[in-house]
Amino acid sequence: MRIESLRDCFMDSSLIRGEKKAITFLREGMIETEISYRELNQDSNRMANTFLDLGVKKGERVILYLQKSLSFVIVHLALQKIGAIGVPLNPGFKRSEMAYLLKDTGAKLVLSGPEQEEIIKEIDPHLTTIVIHTRPYQDLDFFRSASDVMTQVEIGAEDPGLIIYTSGTTGKPKGAILTQKNLVHNARGIIKIWGITEYDVLCHALPLFHVHGLCFALHTALIAGSHVIMLDRFSPEKAIEILSKREGGYVCTVFMAVPSMYGSMMGYLGEKNLDFENVRLWTSGSAPLLVKDFEKIRRVFGKEPVEREGMSETGMNFSNPLQGARKPGSIGVPLPDLEVRIVDPETLVDVVPGQTGEIWLKGPAVTPGYWRKPEDTAEAFEEGWFRTGDLGRVDDDGYYYLTDRIKHIIISGGENISPKEVEAVINQFEGVVESSVVGIPDETWGEKVVAAVVTKSGSRIEAQEIQNFCREHVHTWKCPKEIVLLKELPRNTMGKVLKEEVKKSFEH
Questions:
Q1: Mind listing the domains of the chain with CATH numbers?
Q2: Staple 182 to which of 38, 178, 239, 241, CB 3.0 to 4.6 Å?
């Protein structure tokens, strides 16, 4: 199969679908704008020509420091049409975070919301900034006068299309370069394994500044010709309305989410029993899905969720099958054309099936490296294989499991302890919602095991009870020496627990 650019894929889809609805954008639960594939193509052409008039050249970085909006989508598509490199960033980033990212990208242009403009001006008053106001898309006029006839720019498979910054949970964020080949191959792989078609209607409730919402959800839907119902932000109430046929005129068939979103929706539903039969595909990723939550999603929404795994650097890597067994706790099987090894991180020798090692990947969707970080790039690759930093194993059926991050292994008294193992025990305790186990410095043990635990509202669990329960299920040296009870665990925007923030709960 020939590799085109994202531009070619989007334009082909637009030409085929024409007047079919591409995106229905909801702001605060109300329809703000509906746009067809033809209009999406024309408006992104106008925006692309506007960028060219502003002097934006192929290969230059343009930061999208924007709230989720239809304007964000148009800007993103326009940048792909001229070969510029889009850099989507969290609109909630603060001054210190943005100062680092502006310097690291070397961006010449920033598109920001009005709330974000002041931060950019404080950092660099001379940097060109275009402000996109949070007003109806139809009212935007700065690009309307540009031609909708696109000037063709030569774009190759190895040309970068995006720089996606890693979550930075263990240090300064690194910009993963994603080429046109990376992006197109991953989108096509997802479309194939999940059966995404022009007949699907996607309820899009994810942010657009991560690969999950931008690449896995939006790219696949638009390339396949689906109709996207896009929420400006996730709301459990509104998502449930849309997914349960209560949103007039739209019957959604696909929902992509992170575990915390499912938790919010199920909490909002309570004992209510609604009809979700129209939704054929519920997917979960970006953070581990607890086995008990897998079962609850099946019970509440009527179908088993499809758990998957991906990274900023590699796109989606694994997914439980659409047809066939979905194993709770497993990330599933590799996507098409992805090679996988499980390697002993010390000896760099492949382990046998069933044993735990570091997951290494090689395939068309894997990044060529990190932006302006040759040392980090060299460290991430071993003879062409990308070292994920994830520990995992594969079972006899070829299903993969994540067991931990290498960096989160706790070494206490010379023993290696997996936080995931201890968390799995704690999470079985009656009344526990979830937990996060970390290691903190200790004069005696080097590191000692501690745990932050979230309990159900109204429960009267004592920390000592959880410690006693742990001692019944794992060796004593694995049991938490301290436990704090929290209302919620600290998370980033994609639902991943921030281990460094958890550690701060134990500062005395």
A1: 330-407 (2.30.38.10), 409-504 (3.30.300.30)
A2: 178
